[in-house]
Amino acid sequence: YGGSNGTVDVTVSGGTAPYTYAWSNGAITQDIQNRPAGNDTLIVTDAFGCTYQFVTTVTQPVGPLTINAAISNIGCYGSQAGNIDVTMTGGTPGYTYQWNNTQTTQDLSNLNPGLYSLLVYDANGCFTTDTFQITQVGSPMTLQITGTNVVCYGGNNGTINLTVNGGVSPYQYAWSNGATTQDLSGLLAGTYSVNVTDANQCVVSTFLTITSPTAALVISAQEVDLQCFNQNTGSVDVTVTGGLQPYFYSWTGPNGFTSTNQDISNLAAGGYTLIVTDFNGCTATQSYVLTQPATQAVITSTVNNILCYGATTGSINASVVGGAMPYQYLWIGPNGS
Fold it and tell me: Helix or strand or coil: residue 334?
């Protein structure tokens, strides 16, 4: 197309030779060469002046040989996802293709970033070239994930903070617990995974495990009540399990009693409350009531004196009330009895 290599090869019969030739382009030869597309008029005159006129037409392809290409750049960094879809117009079909990566197909797919040059020949040997660039997004999509663990066993105060870099925003989030927000809060202990999709439909994934203490904070105790009325002999021996050590103790009791010891002793009767706080600030509370006999043990007695000197007719009749039954008795008298 657009060339000037057309020819017109004329053969004359009849009339009386020799013939003379007069072309509309000024040529006087029988044949003409190097003609562009279009019409040329020829008048042929024989030896007796007889003439014949006709019009010749040199044609060309309907349009110039042109490469049209649709480029699909790489939307996900580092993937071989570029495509070049070529459509040819003009020239004379069929076409042959020579790419600078040695491929001879019309289209290219699964391409890395870079420059791709194409040389196309049509059926007449006409050719054209073009160069195309495959690009990719500036940086890969990366995820940074951090979190805070559940503080107290069975709690739901875990959190996850997610940061996305690279790719093409906006991003979409799909968490394993059904959430679609970037960050999570109010979490139970467990493993949470997320798929992040950018505007080019590139997907990256990550996960994080939220932990909690392995067992609840539990207080157990051995209580010792008071054996004697109004004596400070009570005690509470405490064992704490679960939570996160170290533990901190806060006791309150009757008559303004306070203590920060694990175990308490020399206690009066009454109610005692213990609050245990672990290293994470989780708490457990337990109350204990130490009892004592309802009243002090009291001895009453009736004495029968000896009526006759040197006799052994004296007696003591004792009676005990209060304290805690059963009673045990120990007498001490004169002469080691």
Answer: helix
For 6, the token pair is 């057309």
As given in the structure block, the two tokens for residue 66 are 């042109």
DSSP 39-85: EEEEEEE-TTS-EEEEEEEE---SS--EEEEEEE-B-STT---EEEE
Could you tell me which residues are beta bridge partners of residue 144?
A: 163
Q: What's at 4, amino acid-wise?
A: S
Give the integer Cα–Cα distance in Å for 197 and 183: 15
Nearest to 211 by CA among 287, 280, 112: 280
Q: How high is the pLDDT of residue 58? A: 96
Amino acid at 120: V
pTM surpassing 0.90?
A: no
> How many Å apart are CA 148 and CA 208, to the nearest integer?
10
- Please list, in sequence order, all residues whose beta carbon lies within 8 angstroms of the beta carbon of residue 147, skipping any fewer than 6 positions away: 158, 159, 160, 161, 187, 208, 210
Q: Which of 7, 27, 30 is nearest to 17 (CA)?
A: 30
Tracing tokens 């308490």 back to the chain, one arrives at 264
- Grade residue 331 by pLDDT with cuts at 50, 70 and 90: confident
Amino acid sitting at position 119:
L
